[in-house]
User: What shape does this take?
Amino acid sequence: MKKSFVLFMILTFLISPFTFGPSAQAAGDENIALGKPAISDSELAGYEAGNAVDADEWNTHWTANDGSFPHWLEVDLQGAYDLSGATVIWNAWSYINQYTIEVSRDHKVWTTVVDKSQSSSVEQTQYNAFKLRNVSYVRVNLTGINGGKWAAINDLKVWGVPAAGPPHEPAQGEIQTVLPVRLDTEIGQAPELPSVVTVVYSNSDTEDAQVTWDVILPAEYSRPGTFTVSGSISGTV
Ligand SMILES: [Ca+2]
Assistant: This one.
């Protein structure tokens, strides 16, 4: 059967079946973000991005340099890892932190693995389970905080193990969803769309799937802005 989905668009209802509630990370997984290079789009002097990957959950944090949104923080894992989830410890406790988490293999194509942009949770420590192979970059996009707080993260922990690499056991079961992806292109330059996207199975395993994209008209990328491209994959049921 064919499954349709979109590029550049966040579809929260597609992701919700696969993001679980708070629980412990998988046994054996380590915090592979610890001490890795971290950057952000904005940071206050003394509260740089590296403070969010030092495993000090309460004494050091990253803070953006203004009260606007969105802001993002990104960590370079410096290698390929098979991920099982990520824990974010917010600085704004007792406030609603709304966010997404994206992962990338090449720093060009970003796959949304967590979408809490509509969250109403005030939990300060939030564990998010997801499975994705061969990931090298993780980005937290903080889309808003209620109550006038600035974007700030005490600590980001990314759980995983070094990538096993192919071959691996094929995923089993029914395709639950296709994860949306995002990428940037230059004005007037056709985007280089990925040949594969990530599909999630009913048991939460993920797999790459070949994708066929709809035709993009040059008018779409002739001006600044965001647009959505649909694609389809051949799936199993
Ligand atoms: Ca810290």
